[in-house]
Write a structure and sequence with these properties.
With about 325 residues, the chain is of the alpha/beta class. The protein is built from eight helices and 15 strands. This is Phage capsid protein.
C-alpha cells in the first residue's frame, strides 16, 4: 500500500529510527510526497523498474448534426519506465572519539545528522533536476519530465523591484495562471528562497499568506491552501537547487539574467508521487559497531531504492523565465 514518511514513522521500532524519519520529514517535499510501494525486487534486486502510462492530452467532446458522426479524437498517452535508485552516505568514526566530549556518542550523532541532511538535499535536488542520462545511478526529475510539455511556460514575467500593490497583483496573477495549468488543486509551489519570499510578500497584501507550525520546530508557509516550498541547497554545496540565472540565456527560448524557475505540483498516485519497493523500508541506518575489533568503524544512512513518477503532464507545471532580481 502507498506510504508517506509520517506513516513510516509510526512503524519505527527504535528511538533512533524514529529520529531519523523525523529528520527526513524536515524536507517539505519528502513530507508531502507519497511513495507507492509496488515494485517487487525479483531475483534479489535484479528488477527495480516501475512502468506507467502518462496521460499527455485530455479527451474532447462536441456536438453533432443529425445523420453526421462525431469527429473522432483519442487521448494521447506515452509509456514510461523509471528505475529505482538508492541514495545516502557513509561515515567513519574512530572508537576513541566516541568517548570524547559531553556525550559518548557525540561524533556518531553529528555524522548521522549531517548524512541525513545531505541525503535530504540530494533527494530534493533530484526530484527537480534529476537526469539519469547525465548522472549515473540517478532518476529523472520534474524539470526533465516537463521539458517540451504544454505546462512548460517560457513567457517572461517580471517580479523584481519594489513590492508595491501593483507589483503584488502581477505576482499573484502570474501565480494563479501557473496553478491554473494543472488538472486539479496544487499541493505545492516549489522555487528558491528568493522567489518564495517574493510570493510571500505579495500574498501578505491580499491576506492570502498563511503560516502554520511544521515538524521539528519548522514553519509551513502557504499561498491560500498551496504549500510554499523552498527547494533549498544542493548536497554539500551552497548552490540553490533552483538557481537564479546570473546571465541571460540567448535561447531559443531566451531567458533573462536574474530569472528563475517556479514549479507547481499536484501530489497523488494519479499525479506526481514517489515509488518504492514492495514492503521495503524507506529509510535505513547502520550505526558503527564498536563491540568488535578494529579501530575505525563505519556508519551509513540510506533512502531507497526510490524514484518519482509524473503520471499526468498536467499534474505539474513550470514557469521558466520569472525575473526575481
Amino acid at each position: 500500500m502507498p506510504v508517506s514518511l509520517s506513516q513510516a514513522a509510526q512503524n519505527a521500532v527504535t528511538d533512533l529510527d524514529l529520529n531519523v524519519i523525523d529528520e527526513f520529514r524536515t524536507n517539505q517535499i519528502m513530507d508531502l510526497i507519497t511513495f507507492d510501494d509496488v515494485v517487487n525486487p525479483i531475483g534479489g534486486g535484479g528488477v527495480l523498474t516501475y512502468g506507467y502510462t502518462r496521460l499527455a492530452t485530455l479527451a474532447t467532446a462536441g456536438f453533432r448534426a443529425i445523420n453526421a458522426e462525431y469527429t473522432p479524437q483519442e487521448v494521447t498517452t506515452q509509456r514510461y519506465n523509471v528505475d529505482l535508485k538508492q541514495l545516502g552516505g557513509s561515515f567513519q568514526v574512530d572508537r576513541i572519539l566516541t568517548g570524547i566530549g559531553p556525550a559518548a556518542t557525540g561524533s556518531v550523532a553529528l555524522n548521522l545528522q549531517q548524512k541525513i541532511k545531505s541525503t535530504q538535499a540530494l533527494f530534493g535536488d533530484t526530484v527537480i533536476n534529476g537526469d539519469s542520462a547525465v548522472t549515473a545511478n540517478s532518476f529523472d526529475g520534474l524539470s526533465k519530465a516537463l521539458a517540451g510539455s504544454t505546462t512548460e511556460d517560457f513567457t517572461a514575467y517580471d517580479w523584481s523591484g519594489t513590492m508595491d500593490e501593483a507589483k503584488a497583483y502581477v505576482v499573484l496573477e502570474t501565480l494563479d495562471d501557473l496553478l491554473g495549468k494543472l488538472d486539479g488543486e496544487a499541493g505545492a509551489i516549489v522555487a528558491n528562497k528568493k522567489a518564495i519570499n517574493r510570493i510571500k510578500s505579495a500574498a501578505r497584501r491580499t491576506s492570502q499568506y498563511v503560516e502554520a507550525p511544521g515538524p521539528r520546530n519548522t514553519t509551513i508557509a502557504s499561498y491560500g491552501n498551496v504549500r510554499l516550498i523552498d527547494a533549498g541547497l544542493k548536497a554539500g554545496s551552497a548552490d540553490d537547487v533552483i538557481p537564479v540565472r546570473t546571465s541571460a540565456v540567448t535561447g531559443p527560448p531566451a531567458q533573462a539574467a536574474g530569472s528563475t524557475d517556479i514549479y507547481a505540483v499536484r501530489f497523488g498516485l494519479d499525479a506526481f508521487h514517489g515509488v518504492s519497493t514492495m514492503g521495503g523500508q524507506l529509510i535505513k541506518t547502520w550505526l558503527p559497531d564498536f563491540s568488535t575489533a578494529g579501530a575505525v568503524k563505519t556508519g551509513e544512512v540510506e533512502l531507497g531504492p526510490v524514484a518519482v513518477a509524473l503520471k499526468a503532464t498536467k499534474a505539474a507545471s513550470v514557469l521558466r523565465n520569472v525575473k526575481v532580481q
